[in-house]
Specification:
Layout: H1 45-114, E1 118-122, E2 133-140, E3 146-159, E4 179-186, E5 191-199, H2 210-217, E6 221-232, E7 238-248, E8 253-256
Parallel strand pairs: 3-5
Antiparallel strand pairs: 1-2, 2-5, 3-4, 3-6, 6-7, 7-8
Length: 268
């Protein structure tokens, strides 16, 4: 038989399910396919397990997302609380600083209220006559004892001072020398005495003569006395008192010289 393609006979194939098969060559023969293998759509227990696993994964993912969102909200809440706490801390820090300053001011006020205060004053017994010395007193008008470390006092004739021309005194007082007091204690309302020379109008004279007295009375000169005291209070703090006086002829006594430079009147 010659070589040619042969179409398979599809007759008598149930339901019309037939497949044409072409054969060739020496092995030609006719093939008939009577049907396709059945396909099952039923689910067994493995499909159920897979479905349950997928459902479990979905549930776990949902719970994880919800938990993560809750954690984020909790973190945000904690951050907000930290911000509020920081603000409160800053406010409390300001209040604490104010309280500390108030306490320090109160302590300083207490120290100032209970501290000693020293006055350096020429003795009222002074008379304007030719002489070589001026007696002074250092008086404690404070509430606690002062320990005087040193003092300096000086009295001298200077050119007549006026409010317009207070030029005869140096801007900074020159005391010439100091008197070492070696922490001499002075109780409240107590006093100690020191003295200084009286320098005449001429240089290097440690007394006033008749011509100096006449010059003072004629207002050619002013008799100026100034001094200082350096002392410790009960807390060990150092203080200094400075005062300057002039001899007021109408009253025949020394009075505070407000025309003197500011450094002549300093109390710390």
């Amino acid at each position: 038989m010659p070589q040619q393609a042969t179409r398979a006979n599809t007759e008598d194939v149930p339901n019309g399910n037939a497949i044409d098969v072409l054969t060739a060559g020496s092995r030609q023969h006719e093939t008939k396919i009577v049907g396709l293998p059945p396909v099952s759509v039923e689910r067994d227990w493995t499909d159920l397990i897979l479905l349950l696993c997928n459902a479990a994964l979905v549930v776990i993912g949902f719970v994880g997302i919800k938990s993560a969102l809750k954690t984020l909200k909790a973190i945000e809440g904690q951050l907000d609380q930290m911000v509020v706490q920081n603000q409160k801390f800053d406010e409390s820090l300001v209040v604490t600083e104010k309280a500390a300053k108030a306490a320090q001011d109160s302590a300083d006020s207490l120290k100032n209220a209970e501290r000693p205060w020293l006055l350096i004053v020429p003795e009222e017994s002074f008379q304007l006559t030719p002489r070589d010395r001026l007696d002074w007193r250092i008086e404690n008008i404070g509430r606690t004892t002062a320990q005087i470390l040193l003092c300096s006092v000086r009295c001298r004739c200077v050119g007549s001072l006026t409010v317009e021309t207070p030029k005869e005194l140096e801007p900074t007082p020159n005391y010439r020398s100091d008197i070492q007091m070696f922490s001499t204690p002075v109780a409240p309302n107590q006093r100690i005495k020191v003295w200084s020379y009286i320098e005449g109008a001429e240089a290097y004279t440690n007394r006033i003569f008749d011509k100096d007295v006449t010059g003072i009375k004629d207002r050619k000169f002013d008799l100026v006395a100034y001094g200082r005291a350096i002392y410790l209070d009960a807390f060990g703090n150092s203080h200094e008192s400075r005062f300057c006086y002039y001899y007021a002829l109408p009253f025949e006594e020394f009075r505070i010289d407000l025309r003197a430079p500011a450094d002549y009147h300093t109390c710390t």
